[in-house]
Write a structure and sequence with these properties.
243 residues; alpha/beta; five-stranded mixed beta sheet; globular; six-stranded parallel beta sheet
Length: 243
């Protein structure tokens, strides 16, 4: 690098360092103008492209849908956050309420949680580990994660999601960003599943009213309100990422 170029760079740095601080002008985050149904459908389609298994149901059918997913995966030892609402669950389902420091998560086959927000444009679910979501380890150690997402929690864009998460961040809560079941690969592109989180991710999209439910794309197949058997031989990709 020439002396003249170095001088130019150092001069710019010096000017920037001595310049008066200017307040950052932040553009307000606006809610999406698109219909809620379209945003929810986009989330379902994009999440399924990440090899998540997406099922749409209504509040009244939520316990039935959970039972079907657990039976379908053969998950018998199920853990829950302490504050997960009991009305979400089948009445006769045997579950283990997580107790940090006591519960051995390595013996748990599946976990059921809620979430903080879901993002349509990326197919991502975010947990802030608040009510109904449990500690971070609870959703990273078991091999099967069922996440209950209410349609009102689905937003279109990342900025909208970040705005909803602001209070969680200010309280110092950890965030777990989930885009599909866990999978990673080395420099030779050899895929390894389940290293950083569950190998199986089921997303239950729940609406309040028992209206007619649209079909949902699940990795190229169309899935109706209650789940059918999933082809476990499919590749699973991207990963649970954490911040």
């Amino acid at each position: 690098m020439s002396t003249e170029a170095k001088l130019d760079i150092l001069t710019r740095i010096n000017r920037a360092a001595t310049a008066e601080d200017r307040p950052v002008q932040r553009v307000p985050v606006r809610s999406s103008p698109h219909p809620s149904a379209a945003i929810v459908q986009q989330f379902a389609e994009y999440a399924s492209e990440y090899r998540a298994h997406v099922v749409q149901t209504c509040r009244a059918q939520l316990p039935q849908a959970l039972r079907a997913l657990l039976a379908q995966r053969g998950s018998e030892r199920v853990a829950l956050p302490q504050d997960l609402p009991a009305e979400w669950l089948p009445a006769d389902l045997s579950v283990l309420r997580d107790q940090p420091g006591t519960t051995d998560l390595t013996t748990v086959q599946a976990v059921i949680t809620g979430c903080a927000v879901a993002i349509a444009e990326t197919g991502t679910v975010v947990l802030d580990h608040g009510v109904g979501q449990g500690r971070r380890a609870l959703t990273l150690v078991p091999d099967h994660h069922i996440c209950v997402i209410w349609e009102a929690q689905v937003v279109e864009s990342v900025p909208e999601a970040v705005a909803r998460l602001e209070s969680s961040v200010l309280r110092g809560q950890p965030l777990t960003w989930i885009s599909g079941p866990s999978a990673t690969s080395d420099i030779e592109l050899s895929r390894v599943e389940g290293v950083h989180g569950p190998r199986v991710l089921d997303l239950l999209l729940v609406r309040e009213a028992p209206a007619a439910l649209p079909l949902v794309s699940d990795g190229g197949e169309m899935q109706s309100a209650l789940p059918a058997k999933v082809d476990e031989s499919r590749d699973t990709a991207p990963d649970h990422t954490m911040s």
